[in-house]
Amino acid sequence: REELIENILTFAHAALDGASTALVAAPIPGLDKAAVSLAFLIEMVQKTRENDQIAKDLARRLRSLSSIIAESAKKMEATLPRSLTDLEDVASELIFTPFIPRCIRVSRNSKLLREMQERLCEILSNFELQNSIAVGALVSSVVGTLQAVHQTVTVSNYQSNISKTDQVLDHLKPVNANHLSYHHRETEGAHEETRKELLAELHNWAYGTSPDLERFPVYVLIGEAGTGKSAIAMNVARGLEEDGILGCSFFFRSGESSLSQSRDFFSTIAHDLARSQKEFLEHIVTTTRSHHRRHGGKRAQMHHQVEQLLEGPLRSVRADHPPVVLVVDAIDECSDPESVIRKMMQLLIGLPQLAKFPLRILVTARPEKHVHSFFQSHQHIDQAHVKHLHDISPSDTTADITCYLNARISQAVTESQLPPEFQQAHPDAARELAKRADGLFIYAKVAVEFLCQSPRLADEHLALLLSDDETSQFSETNVQLQLDKLYGTVLTKAFREMQCEEGDIPVVLGTMALLRESMSAQTMADLLQLRAARILSVVDHLRSIIIQADDDAHTGEGGTLRPLHSTFPQYLTNRERCKDNRFYI
C-alpha cells in the first residue's frame, strides 16, 4: 500500500510539472500557478504524511486535481486551433475572391462577414464556457482538497493531542472503581418507583436547589448492611453522568485489593475529573506532568496527591462553573487502618473548600464507628449532612420493597424465569415477602433470585420463604446463605478489631439472641452487671447489624438496641448456619 501511494503521488507530481509549462500560454490567468502550487502540495504530502489512510485519500484527490488541470490544457490545445481554422477558412473565402466578383457580390460578402462574426463570437463563447467549466471544476477541486488537508491536519493534531493526553493521565495509574466498572456488575440501581423522596432530595442537593441542604457540600448516607445504599449511589451516579455534572464515582469493594485501599483514591479522582469535565483537563494534565516528574512514577502519599494533583485545578476553575459531584460508595469497605481512613476522609471533605465553584460529595457507608463518629463530630457539623436510612419511615421502606418485588416478579414471569400463572396464584407474594424483608433490600433481591432458581419449584420455594417455622424458613436457601455471609463478615471484622474485649461480644450477642427483646444499653448493662460503656463499645463495632435507635437518647441510656433483621438471632443460635464458635450462642 505504501508503494501504491508513493507511485500515485510521484505520477501526479510529474504530470503537473509538465502541464505547468504548457499552461503558461493558456488564456486562463493563474492556471500555471495552480499547477505549480499543486505540485508543491504533493511534494509536501510526500514528505510529511504519517497516516497511511490519510495519505491514500489525499493521493487520490491530488491525482484527480492534477488530471483536471492536465485535461484543461489538452482541451485548450485541441479546441482552440480547430476553431481558429474554421474562421481562417471563412476569411480565406473573402481574401482570395477576385476583386471584380467581390464588388459584384457585396451582398454575399456581407453575409460571409456576418457569418464570420457570429462564428467568432460563438467560438469565443464556447471556449469561455468550456474553460469556465474547467476552471470551476478546478477551483471546486482545489477547495475540496484544501478542506481535506485542513481537516486532516486538524484531526491529526487532535488525535496527537489525545494520545499525548492519554499518556500523561496514564501516569496517575487509576483503578477501575467507577459505577460502570465490571467489579460492580451485580449492583443494581434502585428501581425507578422506589426511594423517590430520597433520590429527589439528593438531586436537589446536588444542584444546590434545596434550601435546607444547599449549605452542605457533603451528603453522608448511612445505612446498615443490605439496606440498598449502593443501589442509591448507583442511581445518583448514573443520573448525574447523564446530566454532565458527575466528576467521579468511586465504589469501594472489600475483597478487591485495588478497590479496598486508599492509595489510588485521589489519583483516580484526578484522572476521572480530567476525563469527565473538560474544564479540568488542561489543568490536571499540567499538574500530572509535574507530579510525575517529582515522584518519578512512584505512588505518593495521599496529602501529596491532593496538594499536587487536585488543589491547583480546583482553584483554577471559574466560579460560575456548574456543580460537580463526586460519588463515593461504601467508604467503610476500605481495608486500611482506621487512622488512614480518617485521614482519607479528612482530605476528601476538604476538597470543596478549595473550589470556587460548587463541588459536592456524596458518601455512603455502614454505621461503622470510625466512619459514623467522624462525620457526626462537631468539627464537621457545618460541612456534612448525615442521613440515616433507618430514620426513613418503616412503612415507606416496606412499600418501596413491595414495589421492587412486584416489578422483579413481573419481569421474571415475562422472561420465563417464573411460571406464567405465578402472579395470579400468589397475588400477595410481593407484599408478604416485603414484610419478611424487614427493611432489607438485599433480602428481597436474593428472595426473587431463589424463586427463579427453579421455576417448577417456585410455589414450594415461596412457601418456604413465608413459613413461620424458623427451622424451615431459610433452610438451604440462597437467602440464608447471603444473609449468613453478611453476618459472618461483620462479626469477623468486629472480633479482629476488639481482641482485648472480645469476651464482651458473645455476651451482648447472646443477650439479644436469647431475650429477643429490644432494650437500651443501660438496661442490658444492668441485666448483665456490666458497665454500659462496655455494651456500647461492642455496639459501635457492630452497627452494620445492630441498630441503635434514638428513642431513649434523652434518658442517657443510649437508645434502644435491636438486631438488623429478625434472622440475625436465628443465625446466632443455629449451629448449621453459624459455624464459627466465637459467634455461636
Automatic annotation (TrEMBL):
InterPro entries: NACHT_NTPase, NPHP3-like_N, P-loop_NTPase. It comes from the Eukaryota. The keyword Membrane does not apply. SUPFAM superfamilies: P-loop containing nucleoside triphosphate hydrolases. Residues 217-367 form the NACHT domain. Keywords: Repeat. It holds the Pfam family NPHP3_N. The keyword Repeat applies. This is NACHT domain-containing protein. It comes from Obba rivulosa. The lineage of its organism: Eukaryota, Fungi, Dikarya, Basidiomycota, Agaricomycotina.
